[in-house]
Structure formats: C-alpha cells, structure tokens
Amino acid sequence: MTGYRLRRWTDADLPLLIAANAPEMTAHLGGPETDARVRRRHEQYIRGWDAGMPRMFSIRDGAGVGVGGIGWWVSEWDGRACFEAGWNVLPAFQRRGAASAALRLLVEDARAHRDVSGVAAPLLMACPNVDNDASNALCRSVGFARVGVIEEEYRGVDMTLNVWTCPLD
C-alpha cells in the first residue's frame, strides 16, 4: 500500500503504543515496559509538541489506519549535537513499505524543523540493535550511512547498537 503519512501524536494514539509494547515488538529493546511507563511515554509524546521535543508521529496508511509510530529528538553523536530517530511498525503492517515511507518523511520533517529545539543539528541518527536486521536494512535503504557501533544501556539492558547517520543540511 502506498500513501503513508505522518500525523502528530495525539491522545488517540495510545493504543498504538500499547500494541508496540508486545514482546515481539520489544525484543531488540530489552523487552516490554510496564503499563505505567507506556502511559508516561505517551504523555511525553503529547507534551513534546508543546515543548518542541520530541517530535513524535503516528504512521498512517492510505486509509488513515495507524500502523506504528516514529519520531525524533535531540541527542548527541561523537561529541556533537544531533537528532535521533526511533520507530516501530506493528507486525500486521510490516513488509508493506510503511517503515521506509515513514522514515523518509521523518528525514524531511527533521530537515524542515531542525531549528525547533534551538539546536541546528547537522545529522539525524538512528541506533538499532546490531541484531535488528530489519531496522539496519531500513537505515541503509533510506540512505543513512553506518558510522559506528556503540555499547549502551537501555531499559536496564546492555546493548550493542549500530550508529547510522543521515545529513540534514
């Protein structure tokens, strides 16, 4: 299906975040979060639009159905400010082009709004787990360049992550 679009994250998108918290969706992220943490994350996504960060979106198919979530926020790579992207596409909608369409749209959004945080970041970075073949292939296919590997703790789990970057200028 074509015609994917990004829609600003709203209260109506909480079911997407709950669905994305399933074990099969969080296997590369240290496992599911508590219900309370998912609700806090949802509130952060909504408040981010008032505060300027993070810029979180639901991914919508041509019929307007929510198929996942994607967004970007201020981060750091190699001692410099950058933006970092993260995403998910629910299993029933995977392998239909949603992730690649959404990531391309997100790159455009980051380019268009790079001053929104007061940080003129030159890069958009993504850091999928080295074992997450689908997300690493997505980064490559959308034009990100693999620039390194980092060891980082996330949700209390030590992880090895590939670092992919895309220039925003």
Automatic annotation (TrEMBL):
Keywords: Acyltransferase, Transferase. One of its GO terms (molecular function) is protein-N-terminal-alanine acetyltransferase activity. Pfam families: Acetyltransf_3. One of its GO terms (cellular component) is cytoplasm. It comes from the Bacteria. Residues 4-164 form the N-acetyltransferase domain. Belongs to the acetyltransferase family. RimJ subfamily. This is GNAT family N-acetyltransferase. It comes from Demequina lignilytica.
